[in-house]
Amino acid sequence: SSEVVLVGRSNVGKSTLMREITGHSFDTGGRPGVTRKPNHYDWASEDFVITDLPGFGFMKGTPEEVREQIKTDVVQYIERYADSILAGVLVLDGKAAVDIIDRHSGPDEVPHTVELYHFLRDVGVPPVIAVNKMDKVDDRDDRLDEIAERFGLVPPWKQWQDGIAPITAKRGTIGPLNDAVRTQLHEAERDDLF
Ligand code: GDP
Question: 99-129, pLDDT tens digit by residue?
Fold first, then answer.
């Protein structure tokens, strides 16, 4: 079956989302960055395999070189298996993402999340941005428009529903993500026909 990879900074709710997708329990709220190598699971409601890649970004008590190594490992894994990866789910914290992205944007600096998004596209893996923690976001459409813009997707975000999926993993509200990934699968199958 098709492989979908899951990437994101620490603390965005990756483990919580993995639990929703697979029905397995994961070490949520535990030591950040504990997932050090790719782990494969079945996507319960779909015929996909989901690969949990290590979280990157700020990890308390993790030395800089370990954090860099994690980033390198994530990129190399995706590069190596790009041909067979159906979609790359990039998980964001909907409440914090814009501030984090803006803080890391500058003349010589591209935020890692944005970099990863473009990297996925460059290697031919359709990116799906899973905007998590939507339960904490009041101005939903405005926030999603801002996020779209940060990734170079012209608002309104609603025209990008194959690529932007607002979710609340904690409450199991992940329908838009299932839909987006399923759409990517169908597009890939259609492309295979031609
Ligand atoms: P990970 O480090 O990315 O694996 O993140 P976790 O799954 O461990 O979640 C980090 C924190 O965010 C935990 O306190 C979760 O309960 C919380 N969290 C995860 N998903 C949601 C969500 O949809 N809404 C809210 N409000 N909190 C969430």
Answer: 999 999 999 999 989 999 999 999 999 999 9
pLDDT in tens, 23-74: 887 765 545 445 567 889 998 877 889 999 987 766 667 788 888 888 899 9
> Mean pLDDT, the chain, as a whole number?
90
Cα separation of 123 and 82, whole Å? Answer: 6
What residues are paired with 168 via a beta bridge? 173
* Interval 137-163 mean pLDDT: 97
**Contacts with 77 (C-beta within 8 Å, 6 or more apart), sequence order:** 5, 38, 51, 53
**Does the C-beta of 175 come closer than 6 Å to ligand 1?**
no
From the CB of 111, is ligand 1 less than 6 Å away? no
Which structure tokens are listed for 39? 């782990």
CA 132 / ligand 1 centre spacing (Å): 8
Name the region of 137 (left: φ>0; alpha: ψ -120 to 50; beta: rest).
beta
**CATH T-level topology, domain 2-193:** Rossmann fold (3.40.50)
Cα(167) to centroid(ligand 1), Å:
12
**Residue 166 — left, alpha, or beta (φ > 0 → left; ψ -120 to 50 → alpha)?**
beta
| Closest ligand 1 atom, residue 9 Cα | 3
User: Is the Cβ atom of 133 under 6 angstroms away from ligand 1?
Assistant: yes
170 lines ligand 1 (CB under 6 A): yes
